[in-house]
Amino acid sequence: MFWQEAEDNERYVVPDDIVDIVYNIQCRCLPVDHAYALSHAISGALPWFADEEHAGLHTIHVAESGNGWMRPEQPDALLHPSRRTKLMLRLPKQRVEDAGKLTGQTLDIGGNTMQVEKSTVKPLSTITTLFARYIVTRDGAGEDAFMQEAMAQLKGMGIRPKKMLCGMENIITTPQKVIHTRSLLLADLAVEEAVKLQQQGLGPHRKLGCGLFIPHKGINAVQPVLD
After folding, report:
1. In the chain, helix, strand, coil percent, each to 5?
2. How do residues 81-131 score in pLDDT, each as one tens digit?
């Protein structure tokens, strides 16, 4: 764990070059480990997605699946999305119109169907506490090694977080390999740093949901787990 007290952030206007596209969906169930199947289905519906450098996929999460700080469910366990569950892509602004073609399509995700409905465009957040469910780590790397590697990457981006917490290890399976990940929470960033991190992400495999940061309620939300 790394901890340093915060300084005040100034007001900041978020650029709109990278945005989230949020889709309503109808889907009865999905396997917990669905990242590859969902990414493959989206690439089939949007052929440019796989090669778009700045595109990312937020995998599906529901309330009972936990927030990444608890022990993950078994990969073959099922998620049961509700009507409030969303599908979200992080994309460059110039791909927003192209991404609209996903609306109305039915995706096959490992034998489970997902009907994609209307979408809205959501700007990146100015919240300075950010959470990533999956940051790629080396197989067998412990928490200390993971934190050191994450800090080195962040410093290389010009980002110096004041508070960092990592969560449990999780895996993402693909036909080619198993990808080891950990969740990561950063708190008390400068607003410019928070936006930059959402724009650029951290580490590889954005199309599998890795390295993508979302706003988080605050560091107190994970304190009971740490205790």
Report:
1. 25, 30, 40
2. 988 999 999 999 999 999 999 999 999 998 999 999 999 999 999 999 999
Strands ordered across the beta sheet of 86-92:
56-58, 86-92, 18-27, 112-123, 106-109
Is the pLDDT reported for residue 62 higher than 50? yes
- The full set of domains in the chain, from first to last, is 2-7+125-226 (3.30.70.1210), 18-123 (3.30.70.1890)
Contacts of 2 (CB under 8 A, 6+ apart): 147, 151, 161, 163, 164
| Cβ contact 168:182 at 8 Å | yes
The pLDDT value recorded for residue 220 is 58
Tell me the C-alpha to C-alpha distance, in Å, between residue 90 and each of 83, 115, 130, 206.
Answer: 21, 19, 15, 9
Q: Where are the alpha helices (DSSP H) in 73-188?
A: 96-99, 143-156
